[in-house]
Write a structure and sequence with these properties.
661 residues; Four Helix Bundle (Hemerythrin (Met), subunit A); Neuraminidase; four-stranded antiparallel sheet; zinc-finger; zinc
Length: 661
């Protein structure tokens, strides 16, 4: 049989020809040849597309800033050759305060920033040009199978593919893909949104980086793990597990940052509150000065401006120090916010070694920021107290060219009473001292300079004390009994028919300029009037609708204290004027200038303010503003003024003397 049959000859020519030329093939063999060639060409084209896509991903990752994980904007090079966005470097420099040295988040090398101006650092022109070229490149549909692919109009974050209009319409109709996050290409190109990239291994472009080596701080595909990360010391976990832990860590950091930021924001708010109080003092002083000026002659203009400048200077020094503390606290808030914003975006997971190193550095900076101690409120409170002590004292009855002077009303004396929680009454003595009665027994006498000079009537339970014009002393005891004593505190045989404790309840005492003795009863809601001769009450004054807690004689009137309200009534009980301050307790006294002094007490926080009022209970000026007192157990206070001008404010435990001379 011949071995040179047409079939054998054709086969040999196909397999042995150096060029595999199809010129000598039969029609069927020619079809097989071209089909095989097309298949090889398609495989080659797919490999090229795969390599191109992998190269594109690598380039895209190289164009991402390691700090913000977005495409570089205005990239700047540090001395260590690492590149970052200018805005990111600005934020990092701001976090380090006034230091001109900028630490690289990746390698920790330091770069000097001239005059703290990041814009003076060299720009990465090659990278900037590459970014512009990438922005100008069209993105084609990755879903179409044809060679002539149309331009993409959207990108699906969940599918990881770009779609043309046709594929996008089909994609949006798939029931399983309706909830996918789809981004418009116009938004991606403009930088409004960023693409969540699928991590592909740089060494094995077809492999996903599904693992993460905690020791090397990098993602890797399974093949890289087997070849490079199986030695001792490598701790490999699933990339998804790392991402989950990373997101959880970010949320925890953000929560701590928010808490710390809130803490300092409260501190800033507190400083603003203290500033407002100091500003109110300045306004009040300025108003007082202006009022006095308007009542004076034109010659006092220069003096007025001088005084306003003085009070402004005193208060502005305090405000400046408060502003500095506020600025420091706000800088810490900005510090926390800036670093937290750089690391607490749960949709941004750093994917390469530089980004991870930068991320670790910034996280450490945030952890260091947490070590900042919480703000101390003591210093702004003390500064506020200093500013609020500034006041204006007008010249009254002094024939000199001047409105007055700026004074700081502070307690010059702070005296503990001999027996704690015992004060029950206080009144000025005929010789200009102050008598403080105790329900535990006795009357303590204090001079205007705060010296304790003597104790009288040691065995008498004191509920009220008063003095007559002939210096006789009248005492109201715990059983509502009235007793008269001579100037040397010898008991007189005079009887008064007062209401018993069961009938009248808690009582109080005052004496007017005609030596009439007034005893108020809280349970009976009335006031009895006695003459020094004793016997029955010569008349009664009803207290309709209120309980008389403390009573004070004032010219032809009585000042009645009832919790949050002070009433000025006539001798028949008619209310002439009334003043109420909700939430505060008011305690009146008559000044040496025949005006009315009122102490406003905030018992819960331990603050007292003292103001001056007219006989119509109209405000004149502030004398003491929010002075901090030692908060007593019992809610009972008294206010009086020494003949020499000092103001005495008494709590159950202490006597405070304010110098107003």
């Amino acid at each position: 049989m011949s071995t040179n049959s047409p079939t054998s000859s054709s086969t040999n020519s196909l397999t042995n020809s150096p060029t595999n030329s199809p010129t000598s093939l039969s029609a069927s063999d020619e079809r097989v040849y071209f089909e095989h060639a097309n298949e090889l060409a398609n495989e080659h084209a797919n490999e090229i597309r795969t390599m191109a896509e992998a190269l594109k991903n690598v380039i895209a990752q190289s164009l991402e800033c390691p700090v913000c994980l977005n495409t570089f904007t205005d990239p700047k090079i540090l001395s260590c050759s690492h590149t970052y966005c200018k805005a990111c470097l600005d934020n990092l420099l701001e976090c380090h305060g006034k230091d001109q040295m900028l630490r690289c988040p990746v390698c920790r090398a330091e770069t000097k920033v001239p005059n703290q101006d990041v814009s003076k650092l060299p720009a990465n022109l090659a990278l900037k040009s590459l970014i512009e070229d990438m922005k100008n490149q069209y993105q084609f549909c990755t879903n179409c199978k044809s060679e002539d692919k149309p331009r993409a109009v959207v990108y699906c974050q969940d599918c990881g593919k770009y779609f043309c209009s046709t594929c996008h319409n089909k994609h949006s109709q798939w029931p399983d893909f309706i909830s996918h996050e789809v981004l418009a290409m116009s938004e991606i190109v403009s930088g409004t949104v960023s693409v969540r990239r699928w991590r592909k291994c740089r060494k094995h472009p077809k492999e996903d980086e599904e693992c993460f080596c905690s020791n090397c701080r990098r993602f890797a595909c399974f093949r890289c793990v087997v070849m490079e990360h199986t030695n001792e010391g490598h701790w490999v976990i699933e990339a998804a597990v790392y991402e989950c832990n990373h997101v959880k860590s970010i949320k925890d950091l953000k929560s701590k940052a928010d808490k710390k930021r809130s803490c300092f924001q409260k501190y800033v708010d507190f400083i603003d509150e203290q500033k407002e109080r100091v500003s109110n003092v300045q306004k009040q002083c300025t108003d007082d000065i202006n009022k006095a000026y308007e009542e004076s002659v034109q010659q006092l203009t220069e003096k007025k401006e001088l005084l306003i400048g003085e009070v402004k200077g005193r208060t502005e020094r305090v405000e400046k120090e408060l502003d500095e503390m506020k600025k420091s606290a706000q800088e810490h808030i900005t510090h926390l916010t800036t670093i937290a914003d750089m690391v607490t975006n749960p949709t941004k997971i750093p994917s390469d070694m530089d980004a991870l190193a930068a991320h670790d550095t910034v996280c450490q900076d945030l952890q260091e920021a947490f070590k900042q101690e919480d703000p101390d409120y003591k210093q702004p409170r003390q500064l506020s107290k200093k500013g609020k002590s500034v006041n204006f004292k007008r010249n009254v009855g002094i024939y000199e060219l001047g409105l007055g002077k700026i004074v700081s009303a502070v307690a010059t004396k702070n005296i503990a009473l001999p027996t704690k929680n015992s004060m029950s009454a206080m009144v000025g003595t005929p010789d200009g001292r102050m008598a403080v009665g105790s329900w535990k027994g006795g009357v303590e006498i204090f001079s205007a300079d705060g010296q304790h000079q003597q104790t009288v009537l040691k065995h008498a339970v004191i509920r009220g004390v008063g003095f007559l014009s002939d210096d006789q002393c009248v005492i109201l005891d715990g059983s509502n009994n009235l007793t008269l004593y001579t100037i040397d505190y010898t008991k007189l045989n005079v009887m008064f028919e007062t209401l018993s404790d069961d009938e009248g309840g808690f009582s109080n005492l005052t004496v007017d300029g005609d030596d009439q003795i007034y005893v108020s009863y809280r349970r009976a809601d009335k006031i009895q009037v006695f003459s020094p001769a004793g016997g029955k009450a010569i008349r009664e004054i009803p207290c309709d609708g209120y309980e008389p807690e403390q009573i004070t004689s004032y010219n032809d009137y009585l000042i009645i204290t009832s919790a949050e309200t002070i009433r000025l009534i006539d001798k028949q009980g008619v209310v002439i004027y009334k003043l109420t301050k909700l939430g505060d307790d008011l305690y009146p006294a008559v000044s040496q200038g025949n005006t009315i002094l009122i102490a406003t007490v905030k018992h819960d926080v331990g603050f007292v303010s003292i103001e001056e009022y007219t006989n119509e209970l109209k405000h004149v000026k502030n004398l003491v503003i929010d002075y901090k007192i030692e908060k007593p157990e019992r809610w009972w206070y008294y206010l009086q003024q020494y003949r020499s001008g000092e103001i005495a404010f008494c709590t159950p435990d202490k006597l405070y003397i304010f110098d107003r001379k």
